[in-house]
Structures are given as C-alpha cells and as structure tokens.
C-alpha cells in the first residue's frame, strides 16, 4: 500500500516507521526526520501538500485537532479509506462534557463529575467537595488542560482562569470538575472498526514536567511498555466494561467509530475505571507501543478503516522506553530556534530510534528546535531496565541548549509501584 499519515510530531514519525515495515509512506506536513527508506526498503517522505491532494490507499490521521475538525469525513467523502473517527466520533476528545455524558449513558465506570460555565458556581462546588481537586477544560488544550491538586486556592484560581478564557480561550469557558480517582494509571490503545475493538500493548506515560510527578501537566514527557502491574484480567475487564460499551453507545447513536480509541485507565481495588478518552494514538505512548506491535501495522489500520478488526494483535517480545527531550521553558513558554546536535551519536546506540517531534531546518539546512517537545528517544530491549538504560544513554548524547527531560521514566521503583 501507499499510506498517507497526517501530522508532524513524534507520534506521526512513529506511525510512519511502523507502517513503512510493509508500505511506502508519505507524511503531511511531516518533519525533517521523515525522509529516506525503512530497513525493509520502503520509502518515507514528508510533503507540504494537503491530505486532500495526496493519492494514497490509506490515510491515517495523527493529531486530534484535524479529527475534531472533520478531516476524516472530508476524506471519506472523496472516497478515501481513512483510519480516524469522523467529527461526531471525535467529540469524545473534543468535548470532555460530551465524553462524560456519553460514557455515563453507556454505563462505563468512571469518576463522578459536574459541569460549570460560571466561576462562582464552580468555586462554590470546589469548596463543598474536599480535595484532591480535578479541574478540566471542556475543549482541546494540547494535553495541558487538566489540573490535579490538593490546594483549594489553586483549584479556585485555575477554574476562574479557565472559565474567563484567560487560560485556554474558548476551550476553557466550560469546565468539568471530577472526583479524584485513586490507583495506578495505564494507557490502553484500542484499534476500532465495525463496532469491535482489539487492544494494542499496554503502556504508561508521564504527564508532569518534572521528576517525581512534579510541575505542570504537559503533553507527555515519556512512556514505557509493557506495564507489569496490568494483568491480562485487567485488560479484559477494561475492554469489556469500558471500550466495548462505549463503541456500542456510539453505534446506538449512528456512529461507526473507525480509528484508535485511547482509554486512560485508573486501576484501583474495584478494577479499572476510565479517566479520559482520546481519539488518536497517545503521544508519547505511540512511540513506546508501536515498536512492540507485531505483524503488518499498515494492514491492521487498513482493515480497521474498512470496518474489520482482528481478534488479537501480537506483541513483540521485550520492552520499549521513550524519553522526551523538550525545549527550555516547556510547557509554559518553550524556546524555539536552538541548534540540535548529537542525533547521529544518539541514534547509534543499540536499539534506539530518535523520533522528531518539534524540529525544522533553517535556510542553511541547520536542524533547529521548533516546538516544546523536540525529540522522542525510543529504545527497545529485552527488558524495561535494559531499554531504559539505552534510552538515557542516547538522550545524554543530544546537544540542545537548555534541553530538559525527566530522569525517572521507567525507573524500576516507579514501574513496580506506579501511582
């Protein structure tokens, strides 16, 4: 097949490499790292052309914004085979209020919630609730619209900033305040089509900017797969009680969801509960999960896009660890334009792939930073510990002024007791 992937970040780079095991791949708009040939000999290239002008057998839409904007619908109207939900299905991520109401109708176990559009009502509710406090924007916020805190004053300030539009503009003028769930988090990516779903290898990501889960929420600072504390029984229960009922409820509303459904899970004493849904591959979870997906990834996505999902997807043996190298100032005010060096040395570390997330080439061809999350360094090895060692060996070779990254991704004690 010829596959077109829409997007420009580390997730799309990972998707391109996975699909290029069996197919030629073009990524729009792509990034400077997506050029050349895969180890299997298939072509990889970036293109400035819009997806509607690209000829391909399969379109895979990476980011959430074009999905919410209806790109999948527009491509399907042109007769294309598309992996990615239409605008109605993408509302699961485009509106947290809609998502909470839909999963409540489906009977999915999730946190209790209330919806607010007036600051005084939200603050009064917070004062009655008791912490920890969970405050979320209704609309898209690039993974940064969630506050979890024990500090009532901070929760009140955050709710007021969101509802005023000061924090996230129109995306924050309605908020969800949720019950704080207790347990251990994991990320489930399920490939969906024709009302059915199949899980990919489980992962865990790290959303806070700093070691020890301190600092502000980010789009994600790293991930690893597999997750030792998630059992086969946990996964089956999550599929049976969370993912499948959601697809049935979507189907009841006339929506055939064809794409990936990302379920953020909290595993507690009463089993898995849903934290949130995303309607695309998680980033950086994709960078850790896709290297572990066995078989022909392009064929798997094409089958789901056609409404046919296999009973199971094989997982490669071993483990993968992804560490994100971010620009100075990320996530609040990332600096752009710094020269990037050391990529050849980093990529030479055994088992390592350096994925571009926020990079560009200037007029002289020099590679520079062009986003908050600059690179996603993924390592595969026989064990999580070995993959972690390789990933950090490679990250240490990257040269970017002010580069920042967490040093505790997949740390053994964190993996054993993740919370």
Give the topology, please.
Blueprint: E1 2-7, H1 10-19, E2 24-29, E3 36-37, E4 43-46, E5 58-61, H2 64-68, H3 71-77, E6 82-83, H4 87-94, H5 96-106, E7 113-116, H6 119-129, E8 133-137, E9 146-149, H7 152-164, E10 175-178, E11 184-193, E12 196-199, E13 204-205, E14 208-210, E15 214-217, E16 222-225, H8 232-252, E17 259-268, E18 271-278, H9 285-289, H10 297-305, E19 319-326, H11 343-347, E20 352-356, E21 359-361, E22 367-369, E23 373-381, H12 384-395, H13 412-416
Parallel strand pairs: 1-2, 1-5, 2-4, 5-6
Antiparallel strand pairs: 3-4, 7-10, 8-9, 8-10, 11-12, 11-17, 13-16, 14-15, 16-19, 17-18, 19-23, 20-23, 21-22
Stretches where pLDDT is under 50 for at least 5 consecutive residues are none
> Could you name the CATH topology of the largest domain?
D-amino Acid Aminotransferase, Chain A, domain 1
User: How would the global form be characterised?
Assistant: globular
Measured between the Cα atoms of the first and last residue, the distance is 42 Å
In helices, the fraction of residues equals 25-40%
Portion in beta strands? 25-35%
CATH superfamily of the largest domain: ATP-grasp fold, B domain
Structural summary, described in words:
This protein is of the alpha+beta class and 419 residues long. The chain has four domains: 2-84, 3-Layer(aba) Sandwich (Rossmann fold), CATH 3.40.50.20; 114-178, 2-Layer Sandwich (Dna Ligase, domain 1); 184-305, ATP-grasp fold, B domain (D-amino Acid Aminotransferase, Chain A, domain 1, 2-Layer Sandwich); 319-413, Glycinamide Ribonucleotide Synthetase, Chain A, domain 4, CATH 3.90.600.10. It contains 13 helices and 23 strands. The chain has helices spanning 10-19, 64-68, 71-77, 87-94, 96-106, 119-129, 152-164, 232-252, 285-289, 297-305, 343-347, 384-395, 412-416, and strands at 2-7, 24-29, 36-37, 43-46, 58-61, 82-83, 113-116, 133-137, 146-149, 175-178, 184-193, 196-199, 204-205, 208-210, 214-217, 222-225, 259-268, 271-278, 319-326, 352-356, 359-361, 367-369, 373-381. A hairpin with an 8-residue loop joins strand 8 (133-137) and strand 9 (146-149).
């Amino acid at each position: 097949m010829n596959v077109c992937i829409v997007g420009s970040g580390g997730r799309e780079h990972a998707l391109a490499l996975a699909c290029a095991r069996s197919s030629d791949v073009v990524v729009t708009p792509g990034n400077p790292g997506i050029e050349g040939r895969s180890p299997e000999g298939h072509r990889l290239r970036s293109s400035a052309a819009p997806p509607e002008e690209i000829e391909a057998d399969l379109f895979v839409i990476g980011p959430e914004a074009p999905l919410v904007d209806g790109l999948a619908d527009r491509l399907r109207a042109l007769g294309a085979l598309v992996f990615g939900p239409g605008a109605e299905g993408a509302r699961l991520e485009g509106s947290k209020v809609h998502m909470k109401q839909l999963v409540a109708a489906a009977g999915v176990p999730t946190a209790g919630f209330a919806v607010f559009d007036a600051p005084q009502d939200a603050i009064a509710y917070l004062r009655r609730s008791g912490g920890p406090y969970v405050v979320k924007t209704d609309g898209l916020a690039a993974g940064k619209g969630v506050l979890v805190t024990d500090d009532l004053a901070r929760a009140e300030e955050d709710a007021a900033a969101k509802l005023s539009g000061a924090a996230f503009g129109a995306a924050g003028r309605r908020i969800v305040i949720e019950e704080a769930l207790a347990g251990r988090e994991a990320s489930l990516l399920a490939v969906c089509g024709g009302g059915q779903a199949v899980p990919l290898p489980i992962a865990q990501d790290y959303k806070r900017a700093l070691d020890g889960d301190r600092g502000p929420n980010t789009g994600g600072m790293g991930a690893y797969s597999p997750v030792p504390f998630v059992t086969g029984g946990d996964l089956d229960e999550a599929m049976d009680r969370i993912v499948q009922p959601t697809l049935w409820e979507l189907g009841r509303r006339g929506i055939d969801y064809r794409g990936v459904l990302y379920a953020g899970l909290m595993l507690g004493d009463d089993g898995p509960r849903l934290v949130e849904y995303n309607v695309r591959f998680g980033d950086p979870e994709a960078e850790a999960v896709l290297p572990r997906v066995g078989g022909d990834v392009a064929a798997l996505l094409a089958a789901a896009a056609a409404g046919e999902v296999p009973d199971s997807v094989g997982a490669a043996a071993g483990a993968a660890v992804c560490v994100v190298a971010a620009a100075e100032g990320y996530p609040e005010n990332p600096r752009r334009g710094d020269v990037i060096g050391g990529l050849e040395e980093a990529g030479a570390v055994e088992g390592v792939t350096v994925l571009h997330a926020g990079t560009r080439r200037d007029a002289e061809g020099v590679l520079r930073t062009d986003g908050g999350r600059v690179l996603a360094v993924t390592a595969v090895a026989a064990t999580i510990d070995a993959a972690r060692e390789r990933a950090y060996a490679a990250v240490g070779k990257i040269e970017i002024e002010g580069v920042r990254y967490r040093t505790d991704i997949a740390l053994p004690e964190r993996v054993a007791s993740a919370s």
